[in-house]
Amino acid sequence: MELYIYYRIAESDAQAFAAELDALVPRLTARCPGLRSRWLRRPESRDGMLTIMEIHHHPDGLPAAMVRDIEDLLSSWPASRVGPRHVEAFTELPHSTHPDVHRRSCD
């Protein structure tokens, strides 16, 4: 399972967000050993807002306790967030033998 979490921040808060992210990553990796996380942003802004996407993955899967730790640590983060965090969980598709179907992890 992987978690996909998205939210918006004001474009003017991008530098503050980056500083918050730098401070957050060591806390997150200490609390969830082996977790692989990525932060992405939509390439364009809309109405002065950036959409941020977090992807959280663990090579051994995300047990319920780790998901709770992630959600607990990140529930009020970032301070510059405008509106709610939208959390979605996805699991892998069944194995395909078709040569054009590629699966890769995000680490």
UniProtKB/TrEMBL annotation:
InterPro entries: DUF4936 (IPR032556). This is DUF4936 family protein. It comes from Sphaerotilus natans subsp. natans DSM 6575. The lineage of its organism: Bacteria, Pseudomonadati, Pseudomonadota, Betaproteobacteria, Burkholderiales.
